[in-house]
Each structure stands twice: as C-alpha cells, then as structure tokens.
Hints:
2 helices, EGF, Jelly Rolls, 95 strands, mainly beta, single chain, Growth_fac_rcpt_cys_sf
Amino acid sequence: MPIIIIYILFTLLDTSNCQWKIKEKYLDNDWIFTTSAEPSSSSGYFILPSSQASANFITCATPPTSYITLSNSFPSALNYINPQFYDQDWISMDLYFQSTWSSQNVQFTLGSFSYSYIYNSPTTYLLTTGFCDATPFEVKTLNFTLQIAEGSTYARMKFTSSNTDAGLVSIRNIFVSRLKCYPSCNSCTGPKYNQCTSCYYGIQTNNQCPPCPSIQYYWKEEGCRDICDITSPLYYNGFCQFYPIVRIISSYIFDSIYSNEIFKWSLIYDPQHVDTTPTAINIYLFALGVLKYNSGVYRYFDSLSTYSSSTFLIGLKITIMLYNEIPINCGIQFKINNTYYGSIYRNASGIQTHNSKISSIYIFGTASTYSYLTVRYELISFIDIPKYAFLFSAIGNYTDGTSGWGMSHVDITSGYCSQYCELCEVSFKCKTCEIGYYFYRDGSCVSSCSYPYQRLSGSYCYDYDDETPYSQYLVQEYLDLEGDPEYYGKYTLISQSGSNLLSGSDIYYSYWYRFRVFGGPFVWAQAKFQRVHNIINPHHSVTIAFYILYGPSFPSDGKFIYTIESNTPVTKSTANQHYSNFDGSKYQIVYERINHNANTLTITWECFGPNNEPIKAYCAYYNYYIAVHNCQPYCLQCSDQSTCTQWNSTYDSNIVKFSQVECQSNQYYDKESVRCLTCPSSCLTCTSKLDCQTCQPTYTQSKLGCFCKVNQYEDSNQCLNCPIECNQCLSSTNCIECLTINNRQLSNGQCNCIDGYYPVVSDPKCQLCHQFCKTCTGPTSDDCLTCNAIPNIEKVGSTCRCPTGMSYQFATQTCSSCHSSCLTCFRTTIDGCLTCNSTLNRLLKGLKCVCAPGYYELSNVCTNCPITEDPSLSECHKLCNNNQLIWHTITCSSCDTGFQLVSGECQPICGDLQIKGYEQCEDNNTILNDLCYNCQFQCPAYCVTCDLLTTLPCPDVCGDGIITGIEECEDGNTIQYDGCFQVVGNQCQPACSKCIRGLCFECATGGWYIDPLITPWQCKEKCGDGLIIGSEQCEDGNTSDTDGCKDCKYFCRIGCSSCDYTTNTCLSCALPGF
C-alpha cells in the first residue's frame, strides 16, 4: 500500500563532493503575479526596461502560476536585482515557446556578456499539457557558461525577443550555479583540495593551499582565525565544522524603538568620571556606549538556569565596538558574578586577550557624524560554570577620554554539548540523548534519522560515509537545484524509444519541486543510460543509494530497471512499496551495498514501458549517493575495514596507529593523522586535545582541561601562586583581579591598597591607616604619606599631627585648641595636658598644668603668692616631708620616700611603681591611652569610665561618634544601608557589588542599577528588565498603561476603579454609566 507523506526538503551537510552550488535563482516557483508601476517582487523581480513597471506576464489556471513572457508588444524583461556574477558561473533556464517563430532569437545579456538562442517553431506544436492550461508549446532548456573578462561584475540579467510577429516565449527556472571550491580555496578549477588557484590563507603550491599555523583554526571559505566560531566549535579534517550546539540566549543591543533588550542592561559608573549619557547608539552597528574611563555595563542572564538539556562548558561570544584605539596598557575586563574571567587589552605589542580569543575583527572606519575610528571585535571563550543564572559584566580600564567602547551583543551557548543531549561528560560526545533522539557520528543527538543519506542502526543514526571508519563519498549529486556543466559527458545514452529529451538532445535533467533531477518531465520516458565511475583509493565495498521518481501518471506496466556492474538487473515499479508526493508523483528509495574493489564502477538505469510518456509518465532519479568504503590508510588491498592483506611501502606500525588502545598513557589517538599524539603538557593522561583525564602536578582538572587555579598563573609548565595580594594574575608582577574585601584596587597591574589602608607583609588584607593619614605605610601617625582633610592638620616629614597647642577631637574630627593652661595636650579639657608653658609659671601635675609653687590661680592666670602667709590661699602652700604643707616662702630641703623636690616642693616620683600623693596609678611608661599616663588614669576617648576597675580595651560604643576598636565607621544613627550600620561597620545595600568604606560604587546585581545622581550613590530597582525584585510588584517590559502594570507597580488603567491583576482585567469602572 502506498504511504502518503508530505515531502520535506532537507538541508544537506557541506561536503567537498558537492561540486556546484546555487548562487541565484529566479522564476522557479508557482506564483501568481500582479502588476505594479514600480519595481517589486510581485512580478518575480522582473520589470519593463523602459518604464520600471512590472514585466509582461501570462497567468494560467493549470498549473496556477504566472510566467514572465516576451512578445512583440513587450519584447524585453529586466531583472531589477543586480547581484555579483563571476566568470565561469553556469546558467540554466527553461524557455517555453508559443506561436510562430522563424529563425528569430531570444537574447540573454548580463553586462557585456550576451548569449542568443535561435528558434524555429514546428508546423504544429506537439505538446499541450505541462505548461499553461492547454496552450500549445515547445520547451527548451538552455545552459551556458558566463564569460566575464574582469572576473566578476554586478549586473542585471535582461531577456530580449527579436520576434516581431505573434511568437511568444515564457521564461522559467533560471538558476545560476557556481563551482564550489575546497573550503581553503578562494578560487579553483574543481572541488578537490588540489584544484586551487588562489587561497584564503597563504599561497597555493601545486594547486594546494597550506594549512593554518598550529595555533590557529581554519574557517571554511574565510581563512585562519585564533578560535573556531562559537557555532562551529568542532575542529575536524582541518576545518572548523558546524556543530548543533544550542544558542541559549542572544542579547543584541538595539534602540528601544526596536527592542526592550536595552532595558536589561545597566551602567557601571566611574566615580572619577561620572557619565550618565551612554545608551544605544548606532555607529555602523548598534551598541551600548560610548563607555569611557572605568565605566562599564552588566546584565543578568537567567535563561541558563531554565535550559533543560546538558551543557559541556558554556560558550560565550562577546561583540564589542571600539571607538578609537584602546589606550596603551588599558583594556576591558569581563566578569561572571563579579569575578574576573577574561579581558582584552592593549600593550606595546598590540591588542592582547586573556582567557578568550579574537574570532573576528572588522574595521568600519570613521563615521561622518562621529570622530571615532570604529572597529568591531568578536571574542569567544568557553567557561566552566554551573547551569545557574549569572551576572555578566564588562568594565573598562581607560586612561584617555578620547577613546571608548560599546557592548554590541552577547551570545551564550551550550558549549561543546549538542542539543537534545541529556548528559555530556566530555567535549563533543553526548553520553545520553534525550528520549526519542539518536546518537550521531559527531557525538551529537539528532531528532530523526530521515535524511536521504542516513540509516538507523538501533539508537545510532549513521550516514552512508559513516558505515566504516574510512568511508568516503564518491558521488553526491541531484541533492537540490545545483547545476553541473560537466554532467552530460558523464552519461552515455545506450538506447531509447518513443519520446525523450524534449528539452534538448543534450539535456538529461529537469527541475521538479526544488530538485534538479536526472531525467524527469520532458526528458526521460523510454530510454537507458549508463555511467562509469572511477575509484582511485583501495577499498573493499561501496554503498549506492538514490531516489526513484515516477511521474504522477506513471502506468502500472511501467518499470524502472537499474544494474550495478554485472549483477542481476533490479526492476522497480509503482507496484512496489512507494511514497506519494504532493503533486501525485511517487518515489522509492534504493539502497545497495556491494563488495567491490575494482577501479571502476558501472551503473545503468532504464525507464521502460510502452505506455510511458515524458509529461506525466516519466522516470527520474535524485539524491544520488555513492560511498566508497576504503581500506585502512597505507593499505593497498583489504578484505574489510580492519583486515589489510597488503600494506604499502611507507607503512610503519611504530608510527601509524588505528585506535586509542595502541597509544601510550600520555597520548591520545588522532583519527585524522592516524597517529598517537602527545597530550597537552598540563595533562598526565587524556582522550583528546581538549579532554584531560588526569593532570600533571600543580595543575587542577576541570572541563577546560588541566588548568591553574584562579589564584595561580602558569609558567614553565607549572602552576605558581599569584602574589598574595592578587586574587588572579597573569604573572608574578601582573595582577588582573583584586578583592575589595581586602581593601585593594587594581592599578597598572598591581593590587594596591585603597586610600586609608596600608599593606602588611604576608597578609592579603590591607590594614587601616591612622585616622590622620589618607595614605600611609604603617599604623601610626608617623607612617603617613599624605594627610586626611582634617581642619588644622599639618604634615612634618612622615608625620601627620595637630599643630602645637591643638589636639584631635574624635567627635568633631578636627584639630582643636588645647585648654588655655596646656602647652600641648591629648584632649581639650583642663585635664588633658601633656606639657605646660613654663613662661606662664605652670608645671605638669598628672594631666593638668597647675601653677608652680609660689603662684596661685587668679582669673586663669598664675599670680604671685604674697610673702605673708594667707590661710585662704591653699595653692600658695607646698608639700614637704612628713606630708606637711608649708608656706611657699619656707624652704623644703628633703622629701619622704617616693617623693622628690621639684621647684622647692615635694612631688611624687612618677615611674617608681609607688602610688604616692596625688598619683592615681603607676605603669612606668609614657604611653597614652593605656589606662595610666603620667600616673593619672587616662583612657581612650571612647571609654565611658576610666578608673582602677576599667579593663582595656573599652567596649566599642556604636553611635558615640568615635571610630574605635573593630568599628569601621560612625554616623551616630541606626539607619540601615546608609553606609554605616551597627556592628557591621562600613555597610552598603545588599545589592551593592562594590562597597568601599561604606560607599557603594557599583550595583552589578540582577535587577538593580546604581543612581549616581544622588549622594551617596544608591542601588535602585531597574524597571523594565523583566526581573521582579525589591519593591517592584510586576514586570512587563513595556510602558503600556492598560495592561495592569505601570512603572513596575500594579496599575488600573484610566477609568477603572478596581482590577484583577492576575488576568489584567477591569472589575469595576470609576465613572457612572460604564
């Protein structure tokens, strides 16, 4: 029983055996034309040369289509498209002649090229079906080769009829075919690797193009690049090959008029050069820019977390626009979740990259409306991150404001794992396909195994040239519409009867529904053809496959007979199982695999039957494949794919290998070279150049291979630790990432301490400078490089200090004047003196400057005591031995133990470890803030009490205005996220990704952006990016007022008083009568 199906045209893989490719095609569809006064597609892209209106055409009911037709009233038709044509392009077309023609011609012109066909009509046209309704006609297929002296030209094809009588000619099926060169050949004489006349890379030698250098990859029909394109990551047979990875997301920057993608990106501002102007600009290509200095962009990508299939690494393609050159020693860093992973930069040697490769560079030039020299860079890398949502950011490091850059687009793919794969454990090889999918030769999974060149074996779908390890196509023909000017000489017409070859005696092909078929309508009804194929390589068998096509009225007694070599002829007919096409035609699939080792292969095909006719009862074949199953390399004769009976003289079993089991532990098998190749130097064992199984010492195994850890760099085939201050580095002297939690920032390849901190040997974290120092080399005020902006501060050498007569006040953060009684002090109160002014008749007792013996305090002035004793003037008495107080005029000659004479008075000896007289404490040192100074209780300013019971350090009092102990900041309030909060210290909003001393400089967190127009900068929700965060209630990515969401808040449209936000419907109206 026939199987009725809808026929599907499959896209075939690119191989070198397909010699020609279609470059242009016109008038090849059934299409009803319409008249237009100006050029349009409504008349098949053809116009009248004189008026630019639609070319003349006729329209038919059977089949329902229109034909561009030349007549005496409309003798010409011009194609208004002018593509590029090349010398030796092959053109084929069908001409349908009607009415009387007497040696008149149809002329085809293309630029300076011209081709004429002279036609004489028969007395009576024999054909009335197969063209237009019942119109009598004769069809002729023309084919010719373009001769263009200059090599190529942009031109429009023109048809002109010289028939001035009633003769008409209709034009159909115009195809322009071009020779398909080997992928490394820019021009050629044939499709093979040794038929090149010029190369995409290098210069041909003996008609062969050289391969790329070992560190580069060959892009088909383009040349050598540093990495394969992200959609063609598999390097095989010397070329980057297309691989069915999944493009999980593509983020293209456009103006908001065309896309809301721009709303999903946010700016990172440079605090020193705040610029809020970057937006979607179009300098040759759209990009988010111009970004200058240390500004950047970021976007939250969440599609990876919802991708259901497997990945092996994540492919990342970044396209940036450079506006003028990157300044020397500057560049752009790329980060994943705020962690550095790669960069592009410029040094004295030019543009460099780290952890990524440049796949494409395109120089646009300087736009007339801008002064920038614009260059597009495409960067590709593969990163090892889990399938979670992540934040991508790009941050510039420019020192010159005349240059900038822009983010154009980002592509994220499934890496080295194909679509429909459930589990990838190594690159380019799926271990488990999803249910309903099949394993394929390149390690991918395919949804069906129904291409014309495929067969299914269990869960594996193989191609004809994959039946053995060394299979190779000899023939791949009649696969689509491509032409072949040499086809005629490949066939021999053995015999014929009845009507055949109506399109021309040398025309063995026709066009049937997107296919150029051998035979077919107007060509093959009762005839036998033969073809002899030459096979050079030693082989043991061949596979031959093709589709037989029967016309819609092919009779039951008609037959299709094919014979391979001298084997028994095989007879087919519509009585056999077949498939039906949309037009009533039928087809059968022929597959034959035979043992064969001769240098020629002869096949004959015969369309047989007395009732066959060439209009509706024709024969044809298409999807013609021959796969030769070769012997092993270096084998001259074999019985199968693994049994060689005669090796050639160059075979060396010590060098030539055929499987991984023949390789040593530090080698992997390379099928292309038939060799065991040494694993990468970082690998101990491996299965391919990409897949290490174990690593050399110091290296770490990952999906990327054997690599150094994030805080290591590679040198002399080993991983070495980065300097302790670097989170990532390129060498021992070149850091590329610093951690703000270590109080460091990147500057000229060094992780320097941020202002206010100093480095400590063997400690990655910078420590806080003294509060007097803006920059410093140590913890004290004597280690300052520069001073903080403290009122009245002064710098003497490396010391930042308050001037003499002043002391630093924590509460006001100023240098304030000492008490009038003090010469120098540690606080401004009367009991905060360090030294006294002797000219004011004062001396230091404990922490106070009191009047010297013989003086007393009168209106803050030390006044001479009277000679006569006055009991009311206690200050005029002085202490002498035996703890007695005597008048100041009396001489004291000795003191008790623990005292000493000072200015004629007994004062306790501070530092003798005895607490005597007015002394409160004794610690035998002169250190401030250690509980005892000058034998008086003296504590840091933040201590609430200071006495014998005090234990230092005093507890930090958050809110007292004094930064002490582990406190990082003090703002005197309990407001969260204002830069300083409780015991946390310096604190920014949770969305802040770069917090320095309580100030947020970056909100590279999904859904947030930083507002630099308020002080301090704050993270705010980014409405329109599709993420609902913070105070947002909804996200619809538009500005409509009628869909229930406006400015990311639930919103009833105007006139509606209540809404159902789950269905975006109005429940009640605000105005009566509605």
